[in-house]
Amino acid sequence: MAEYFNKIASRYDRWYETGTGRYVDRTEKWLVFSMLRSRGGKALDLGCGTGNYTAELYRRGFDVVGLDASEKMLEIARKKLPQVSFVHGDAYQLPFPDESFDVVLSVTMFEFIHEPEKVVSEIHRVLKPGGEVVIGTMNGNSLWFIFKRIKSLFVETAYRYARFYTPEELEELLKASGFAGVQSAGVIFFPSFWPFLGLAEKVDRKFHRSCRKLAAFVAVRGVKM
């Protein structure tokens, strides 16, 4: 997967410049940061890619470190945020001491790992007691990503290599590693060609908890006790 993301790194951010990309990015960030209770401290952006969420954490006042397996992605992230530390590393063996972070955030990385239990265990290890994790992934139940997965059979995209999760699966991952207060939510209920983005955002904010099983993007939060 690192080789694949090295290959697409130069064009990775372009999708966020499209109308749909801006809506998705804005809405997913609203969900992630509405679930995150911490307002500061030491944060790890795990699977940071080109630094999209790293930049948002930095903007919000966190002392943030970004880690990714793709060196090409990290090159772009470093150019965006020269004041932030970015680490080329392995999510299965995080190069940080025990209880290093107040927050671990990981958005759209878990789809591309083979042993999620090991990664969640590492997240638990590097979090301080009382620290929180938020993981965001694509939803395996969503019609949006069923369509994307079918498309990837004919055109090579990241979705060809992805494993999708349901909210229940994400919750069980955290609970199995000892996280408490586990809860999930989701956004993006309309297909990518839906033209009425204002309406879509209203639906996202109203139904992000009650209809999370149908959302294209789901996030789960837990606390290390």
Question: What does the model show?
Answer:
By secondary structure, the protein is α/β, with parallel strands linked by helices. 37% of the residues lie in helices and 23% in strands. It is built from eight helices and seven strands; from the N terminus they run ααβαβαββαβααβαβ. The chain has a seven-stranded mixed beta sheet, sandwiched between helices. α4 links the parallel β2 (63-68) and β3. α2 runs parallel beside α8. The mean pLDDT is 90.
Query: How much helical structure, as a percent, in the residues?
Result: 25-40%
Strand order of the largest sheet: 3-2-1-4-5-7-6
Question: Could you give the distance between the termini?
Answer: 33 Å
Order of helices and strands: HHEHEHEEHEHHEHE
Shape: globular
Unreliable sequence segments: none
Strand content: 15-25%
Biggest sheet: strands, sense, closure?
Answer: 7 strands, mixed
> What Rg do the Cα atoms give?
16 Å
Structural class by SSE content: alpha/beta
Report the average pLDDT across residues: 90
Number of strands: 7
User: How many distinct helices?
Assistant: 8
